[in-house]
Amino acid sequence: MPLHPELAAVTDRIIERSKPGRAAYLDLIEAARASGGDRPKLGCANLAHAYAGTDEQRDMLRDGRRMNIGIVTAYNDMLSAHAPYYRYPEQMKVWALEAGATAQVAGGVPAMCDGVTQGYEGMELSLFSRDAIAMGTAIALSHRTFEGAALLGICDKIVPGLLMGALRFGHLPMVLVPGGPMRSGLANKAKAAVREAFAEGKVGREELLDAEIAAYHGKGTCTFYGTANSNQMMMEAMGLHVPGAAFANPTTKLRQELTRAAVQRLPQIGWDGDDYRPLGRCVDERAIVNAAVALLATGGSTNHLIHLPAIARAAGIVIDWEDFDRLSKVVPLLARVYPNGSADVNGFEDAGGPPFVIRELLGGGLMHGDILTIAEGGMAQYAMKPAVEDETLLWRELPQAPGDDSILRRLDAPFSPEGGFRILAGNLGRACIKVSAVERDRWVIEAPCRVFATQAEVQEAFKAGELDRDVVVVVRFQGARANGMPELHKLTPPLGVLQNRGFRVALVTDGRMSGASGKVPCAIHLSPEALGGGPIGKLRDGDVVRLDAEAGVLQALVDAAEWDARPHAAEPPMALGTGRELFRLMNAHADEAEKGASAMLAAAGL
Length: 606
Description:
Keywords: 4Fe-4S, Carbohydrate metabolism, Gluconate utilization, Iron, Iron-sulfur, Lyase, Metal-binding. One of its GO terms (molecular function) is 4 iron, 4 sulfur cluster binding. Pfam families: ILV_EDD_C, ILVD_EDD_N. The structure is a single chain. By secondary structure, this protein is of the alpha/beta class. The chain is about 35% helix and about 15% strand. The protein folds into three domains: about 350 residues, no CATH class; about 25 residues, no CATH class; about 150 residues, IlvD/EDD C-terminal domain-like (Glucose Oxidase, domain 1, 3-Layer(bba) Sandwich). The chain has an eight-stranded mixed beta sheet.
């Protein structure tokens, strides 16, 4: 199927814009490859240090004739999604030996959970943890003792951070190794209903805790389609997983065999063979477009409007929100997974999952099928379903129809002809909005605003009944430079309650909303941010604000002369405690959301 003309045009736009940076990046990784490998060039004392921690592999490492795989792991057992990685390294070492390779844990990276820190000071470290993960990945791989790498991470900032760091070693073949989602517990809609009831004071803390524990009850990622699970969809579309690895549950035979296959694929695509597939060549402009398309087609997390540009920059590629906006107008919505529907990711997987979506998009010319993937079968293999039969991992063709058309649709019968992302622009700056879960009659909201500096202030005003009216809630000084751009997930229940009461409600912020953002229209990632003079700082209580997702407008309806003369709000002091002061360097150098809100990339001139 020929490419859709708009997909081709957007791809060409990205390629043209990225030429200088991409050329410099490819020169970097070619120079690293041209060195012929690092281990043979290391001094004997250097090598002895690298091999001293292992007994069983030392002789094999010493002969230098086989691939040594570096494992970068985000394991900790405080987070359900990363707890399954506990035994992975020892298993992966065995599987590497089966394939004639060796493996060592190159390093660990931090993995924090937005679900734990939501609404508290720790969330102000969340976005910058991505830069810390990228730098940790670079430290792990800097020992120059690896010919390939396996990246163990799954959640919100971890996968983008791993990729951003790993791409600076793009001459190495690498594979992303997910751990899978927990099995379904309390339905997400039931959980949301209890949260809203708690926000209204109709249930107490014990009932709320019971509901939350029933929803988040075991090892694996959360089952809603937030940032973590959107990560997995994108990695499939970029060809960086073993095909179909995204949503196999932990502790299953299928999950084990997919991980074994990931390890054993690396020696096959190393530079000593005739099928060399380095990460930096796999992640090209077409792969980035595939990730954006997959995100739009499934109603994925708004956080990736920050993360995907940052990943791209690490590979010398520039993608902006206009690219997303143009793609969204031609990419149909093929999946409804909570918060865009009632099903969780296990239901999505059972209905056909990522392979079904990829097959439909490839068949409609809405995804690049010719990218270099880690799989021998290319993107076509990502359109097939993995299974274990007689102890053998294999891939099967999918049925033509989805398993449940309330969750998943064919390309010729989508839930919506558009992907549900829009750019908003006006005298308040430039923002983005996810409308795939917002009813069409709420795409346009015009109401007086109420201005806040924290989400705690919003919650207090809600409890006091001060927001029981049509209102645009404005939360400012939430950008990367102000406080690290925390998610404002705690606002979802009260805003949802106000909307349920019949009020016309919207949120406008220079911060982030959760990957679980849903039915309330939210203009997020507003740039420029309030700190440093962004126009959101001029808003005053009672100003009428118009959010129009149909026309792409975000406007304060204030007389132009008055608006121009109006002073900017005073900047709040930088907060102390919970380690936030250690991240001041990140605050100072972070660039705008549309570029990825990264201090590390900005400081590196990427």
